[in-house]
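Please go through the sequence line and token line underneath and see whether the fold suits the sequence. See right below:
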Amino acid sequence: MKIVTAEEMRRIEQECGKTGLPTTVLMENAGKAVAEEVRQNLKYIVKQHILFLIGPGNNGGDGLVAARHLHDWGAEVSLWLAAPRQNDSNLEQVKQRGIHCIEAAQDANLAEFEKVLATAHCVVDALFGTGKIRPVDGVIKQALEKVNDARHREEGLRVIAIDLPSGLDADTGAIDPAAPYADDTVTLGFPKPGLFLFPGAERVGRLTIADIGIPASLAQDINTELLTRNRVRSALPPRPLGANKGSFGKVLAVAGSNNYIGAAYLACSGAMRAGAGLVTLAVAKSLQAVLAAKLTEAIYLPLPEKEAGIIDAEAAETVGEELKQYDVLLLGCGLGQGMDVSRFVKSLLRRKSLPPMIIDADGLNILAQISRWWQNLPDETIITPHPGEMARLSGKSVEEIQSDRFGTALKAAQDWRNVVVLKGAYTVIAAPDGQLRVSPFANPGLASAGTGDVLCGAIAGLRAQGLSAFDAAALGVYLHGLAGEIVRQNFGDAGMLASDLLPALPAAIKQVKSATRQKGAICY
């Protein structure tokens, strides 16, 4: 599912006109799709009071079409017209049905608006779409503030936004203070970047992507995509009946230290739960017995240490001798950042022949100490930084990174020739060839220690099964996010532990494989 900017959406709509899909047809399709989503959202709409806020542009036109359909299906519909609409056939059809219309210019102090809002079961925001962002002021600002106040007071009132909440910048996620907090956003044709970028993403609510009849071919040259279940299912590695453990790849994980024993457990378990055939943990020898008591399925490569639980720099030779037996090297989870560990990592990276690599956590922090560190890595190494680690690697501030997550990840991937997984709500995955994938998941339950280790392990497990670096990273992110949703559905998001994700990972894979192919509107 392509993610398109406001300018790309305008171009696509223009191309639609050239292929026999004029704006009037797209508007009719959009309005009908929105009406269907409102009906499904409310479940029972007969005599339900739905208030539409109608803006001056195409977004308002979509709202008028939706209002007409909902009226015809038995809902009680009211319209608040923020500005006059001249020679508008959709408005005429609404008036012919006797639908109650309030014109803002004739509603002094929003008295009539407040009266209608007080009896509404649902408010549909059809004020501003993907057009140029503008300050929300005047009577529109007042109306939206009243909607937000009513939503806060009235537990049953639902707010549904068409395309995106009014005041949200479609490209950047910047938000006007008056923008509504939507319970649901029905975005039209394709999702827009701002729906996945903060602070605006906080106001989107449940996201539905409505098919309005735009041919997918018109967006085929766009490299930014939202990860969907259909795409993930098509890329999952096969599991042939006659397989053996070698069929699913071998992972060597260099992880763990005396203060971060759990990181090694979580990373190795993540790789196994994602389907790797064999995982070997290379760890300081004094920690082997501790880990073996919990991580029973792994093989162990004990490493020399100078002090208990901290690997010696000379361990690079021990690891190097084993590398040719493995399909993937996972490096960094809980490794520590002391002088000996730093010397170990630098020595290991100087080896001429390295398998495909996934580097996380302390491995990334040690990389950041090396001038032009990316030149020491094989092309398409997968790195998995959170914003703080990305700041250290790039020299940018966390604020700069978070203000342009898509652009930051993409430029880094191209400059460093690595696959970059920029973690966080709506994790971004970027490839050196300019492809960008965005996770559909934002789950506060994943903001806890150790979840990143599980993710790194899952990516390594998928990479070992023969997926490309970019596909392994994208599928790992999606399955990790879906596992988080499975846990959240069972227990909620407070108190979610990284280890809760481990049994949920194979459940997520099963769910993706068994799900019916998504068609039409896609919901997140």
Summary: The chain has two domains: 6-220, 231-235+248-514. Residues 196 and 426 are 6 Å apart (CA to CA).
